[in-house]
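Pipeline run #58 for the internal structure catalog. This entry was flagged by the ingest filter as a single-chain record with no existing model, so it goes straight to prediction. Upstream metadata was stripped on purpose; only the residue string is passed forward. Reviewer on rotation: M.T. Logging verbosity set to normal.
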Amino acid sequence: MAPVTSLSDSVEQQLTSAISAALPETSADPLLRRSDRADFQANGILALAKKAKANPRELATQVVSRVESGDVIKDIEVSGPGFLNITITDRAITRNLAARYADDTGRLGVPHAAHPGTTVIDYAQPNVAKEMHVGHLRSAVIGDSVTQLLEFTGETVVRRHHIGDWGTQFGMLIQYLEEHPHELDHKAGEVSGEEAMSNLDRLYKAARKLFDADEEFKTRARRRVVDLQAGDPQTLAMWQKFVDESKIYFFSVFEKLDMEIRDADIVGESGYNDMLAETCRLLEESGVAVRSEGALCVFFDDIKGPDGNPVPLIVQKSDGGYGYAATDLSAIRDRVFNLKANTLLYVVDARQSLHFKMVFETARRAGWLNEDVKAVQLAFGTVLGKDGKPFKTREGETVRLVDLLDEAIDRASAVVREKAQDLSEEEIAERGTQVGIGAVKYADLSTSANRDYKFDLDQMVSLNGDTSVYLQYAYARIQSILRKAGEARPVAHPELDLHEAERALGLHADAFAATVAEAAAEYAPHKLTAYLYQLASLYTTFYDKCPVLKAESPEQIENRLFLCDITARTLHQGMALLGIRTPERL
């Protein structure tokens, strides 16, 4: 099915033609905004008038005289200093929604991007042999939603989970396991994710205790790091045990988050080990990096420390070891030249912004990034507690992610049980999980990524306000109405006049395509959450003011069922792009 042209695009096309006729020498790209007084408001006239040195109200009047009322525009009038208030016909609203409704692909007539490319997105980056905590939540949730948005708009997306699976701590762990093999005597896959991480946590603490107390063990552990980096088969085999054990745990947490993480997409720090020496050689030979006190460094004029001296990006340490910069630069080379990416997107904590600024600039100087290939850090803020401070346990420790998710599910299950009328205990448990995980995701995604946000479960699972629970109940309410409709079916009737609440709901539903395009282009899931919350709110108003099954005529019943169904489909698709389930019954 061909994409459906949105009403806003249709109006802009007519306005552009009228403006071009009024100002032949001036290019026009009017900005339409939703208006409380009418369907749209054109604000671009003022800027055009200033550019053309014309009176804005007189120019607006000329434009109005050149716009023909018809199938789409019912009325257009000048207001204030030169704004245009535009009212869309009822017929156009219903007809456009009917075209979206007829899309059997499930896309609701949403077009693909005009020029899709290939994006490699780096997100959900836990560390081997360490439990995931609340700090891992945002990268996973934001990254998953942005991935869904980009793929929906036609972008080719390559997922990369850059897990921490390399470095000095593994020499310590491997050496300890070599000397205490009985402490991890099961095979990967024989235990649950929680048990796997519990075993690794216990092993790590024992190894750390011995490392700090025994100089001879410390020496052996450091030798083991050298063996690991050199590719010693026995050492690599033991390292692989830690990685496999950790993956069992990772997959269990991501499954609880209702996210798909594929093993092939997990390419950690170790995946670039063979490229590190060549990356350093290329940087040094090109003059991008220079030796300073034995280390290979890249310097920047605009990045200085507290003492006023330049702060370098250290690619290779003076002892020959490689840091994060070498790994990240090697990853850029792989993603640009092997994966053929146009965009490299990093969903990473804002506190790492300086590091990525230096890495991206180094890659640009080396010619790996250019006008055709860009790198973007989608930096995210911190998860805060109710007190506005970084989220911690009462003992001051970092909150385990699985504990947080389990509590959200428990709270949501209590809400579902209280409201449930015909759900079994098994269904309540299933819905409680969907509502609880949805609540956590929505609270994260409804905040602009670069802002901190407060983690408040009481608010997250509330039936009122801007929460996923509110949206899920709106969807379930619509499904209940559709089930009760009996023989009546959703059918669009463009010939019917619409109630004010029907118009508002219909116009907003038609804006779904534009919202998805904007959210994808700006990597901004919060714009989609805002749209969906407004959609659910407008539906609540419609439901209160416009009887559906008791409407005045069979045609009006069908048309209102149609409005219900198109709203439900839009909510369902929009929530899916956020990674949130929409249960049929709640």
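catalog note: The domain at 438-577 is CATH 1.10.730.10 (Isoleucyl-tRNA Synthetase; Domain 1).
catalog note: The CA atoms of residues 409 and 436 lie 4 Å apart.
status: ready for reviewer M.T.
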